[in-house]
Amino acid sequence: MRQHRFQKDLPFSETEYERRLALTRAAMERAGIEVLLVTDPANMAWITAYDGWSFYVHQGVLVFPDADPVWWGRNQDTNGAIRTVWMGDDRVIGYADNYVQSTERHPMEDLAQRLIGMGLEGARLGVEMENYYFSAKAYQALAAALPDATLIDATALVNWQRGIKSAEEIAFMRKAAKISEKIVDGLLERVEPGVPKHQVVAEIQRDAILGVGDDWGDYASIVPLLPSGSDAAAPHLTWDGRPFNKGEATFFEIAGCYRRYHTPFCRTIFLGEPPEIFRSAEAALVEGLEAGLEAARAGNRACDIADALAAPLERAGIERGARCGYPIGLSYPPDWGERTISIRSEDETVLQPGMTFHFMPGLWMSDWGLEITESILITENGPAECFCDRPRQMFVKP
Amino acid sequence: MRQHRFQKDLPFSETEYERRLALTRAAMERAGIEVLLVTDPANMAWITAYDGWSFYVHQGVLVFPDADPVWWGRNQDTNGAIRTVWMGDDRVIGYADNYVQSTERHPMEDLAQRLIGMGLEGARLGVEMENYYFSAKAYQALAAALPDATLIDATALVNWQRGIKSAEEIAFMRKAAKISEKIVDGLLERVEPGVPKHQVVAEIQRDAILGVGDDWGDYASIVPLLPSGSDAAAPHLTWDGRPFNKGEATFFEIAGCYRRYHTPFCRTIFLGEPPEIFRSAEAALVEGLEAGLEAARAGNRACDIADALAAPLERAGIERGARCGYPIGLSYPPDWGERTISIRSEDETVLQPGMTFHFMPGLWMSDWGLEITESILITENGPAECFCDRPRQMFVKP
């Protein structure tokens, strides 16, 4: 790796970035890709250490088989790239500001000119076709400006390399888990009938950013989700200013975040005396979670977790339509999943030590909901390890 | 509008949603679009009142010339749609969960089947080609599944209809502005040498969500940006745990948010005695802002604001490469701009009463930065009105 001019606070060791680049290059070779355009901000950060809220304009990282990656983005963001990436300043290039949200020109036309300048006009170029930050228009503009190139779908090519976490990454996730625990502790303390929901959110967002000890909190890729009562049927409603009510369950879907690494964690709080339907759902769900954790072993498959979970739920008459988990780690809004494996009956991916998942069997019924989840690590031997250490139950406050 | 089953807390009046639908339909007709697929979450919310953090999976709103819109998304999110949109429940449709992040099937294949079922397989279908939430793959999958349809680029078609705010929307933005003022007041109080940056962020995020009076705060579409010293050259760096230092300027880019409506607001705090370069830049910038506000009148053009700003800056030897503003209002991550007008010398859009902008002439030099900005409303007569009421200056704390 080249020397760099600024004193940079890289999150990981040089070895770690070399590991990531080697994995990416090997995957490129297998896919027959000569140059890879990475536009997923998490993939960009994973490879180069770039970090900034600039993904609302077009940007990317070019990965080559035999030269350092190139960060490419808006001119004004090159200052942020120079300050965060491990590559030399000569590997950071910007495009003029009048490409931004223009109706006349597209940033991908600038990128195409760069590639042509590198003699890559006829390259086999990998692009992440299914990504928030590679729009339909970006694809069209790039393809039109590089008529001799072959564009190859490299969706999730880098994401798959991120699946098995290094020890350095797991250490970050353990710090994030401490923050998740702190958030849940704060919820248990503060949620009471009559307390407006936004007030509780304000306090837990404060907790999340204050972090734990010297480990400051980063912004999570999803805001806290905490619907109550009938609204808990809807997994993705955000907060408002109405109070928590006696006789209602609220699920809390949150994640501590340490330097972009997440450990999501969900618990449900019932205020008052839960009806039998909640008690029996809780029992079945906890039994399913524990069966799933047992099944979450290296050598088993993703579907084995889903099937282990499903059995006790089915016995309790609960049919879940949705997947029950996804890989986690480094991420940027709008999602904290890695978008590779889905824990569901049709996914036969073999589990390997170092993989990390949010085991997330949320129950969203027609007029109520219940979430009890765990962020887990697949270990060398034995069942999955849970990142957070809090009782696996629905909490009841009388 | 149809009756609905749930007691819904719609943000706006029925008249307001009728206005929006009529504007959208007229724009569709001008563009020769028979059915419009809206995937931008802000456009979806503007038309239907849908609100939820579900945009990390494919979803959309179909707008027809002569029938109520249809909300389409993941099955588990139909519960959120039923609870938030003004249309009847029969206008909410979901797709099976095994379409989510699948390598075998794409949600757009489900949407295509819905359109075919409506007899629209040969329709002139508008799609938002340049949008975070309409990926290159989504476009390909939709086009492949609807070979007889004509896909028309409807990028920003709805965004342009959002430009002139109604009185109801302006009332929301005034509430957001009060929250912005509260955040800036909190910054002035708390930023001191030696205070770790994340601690200040924790407090202002709390302030933002607590809101002002009965007006609870929503999440802003961009997290607070607050780089210091040399890092202030980089506009989009987020926080860390290092302390504020004497002798450094930090700019704060924040936005209060009330029910998804934003009023961004930026101020700079210098700790210690600012060097002459800051004083002269501040003077030129404030002069430029005031000239720009004078030029921001109905009947003038966007470029007139940019040109008015540029003159005093150029006299001070400061050349800005970037645009100096964009329209604001309703938005979702990752951006709080509307992505239509850009306030820059080449944009000749005529300003109209009710338009709202973030007038944002940030200075990002090679090793320092300065931001003093205003969120503004174009009025019937006279110069622009500023939403926030705080001194237009660099704040100096000795």
TrEMBL record, chains A, B:
<feature type="domain" description="Creatinase N-terminal">
    <location>
        <begin position="20"/>
        <end position="163"/>
    </location>
</feature>
<dbReference type="InterPro" id="IPR036005">
    <property type="entry name" value="Creatinase/aminopeptidase-like"/>
</dbReference>
<feature type="domain" description="Peptidase M24">
    <location>
        <begin position="172"/>
        <end position="380"/>
    </location>
</feature>
<dbReference type="Pfam" id="PF00557">
    <property type="entry name" value="Peptidase_M24"/>
</dbReference>
<dbReference type="InterPro" id="IPR000994">
    <property type="entry name" value="Pept_M24"/>
</dbReference>
<keyword id="KW-0378">Hydrolase</keyword>
<dbReference type="InterPro" id="IPR029149">
    <property type="entry name" value="Creatin/AminoP/Spt16_N"/>
</dbReference>
<dbReference type="InterPro" id="IPR000587">
    <property type="entry name" value="Creatinase_N"/>
</dbReference>
<dbReference type="Pfam" id="PF01321">
    <property type="entry name" value="Creatinase_N"/>
</dbReference>
<dbReference type="GO" id="GO:0016787">
    <property type="term" value="F:hydrolase activity"/>
</dbReference>
<protein>
    <submittedName>
        <fullName>Ectoine hydrolase</fullName>
    </submittedName>
</protein>
<dbReference type="InterPro" id="IPR050659">
    <property type="entry name" value="Peptidase_M24B"/>
</dbReference>
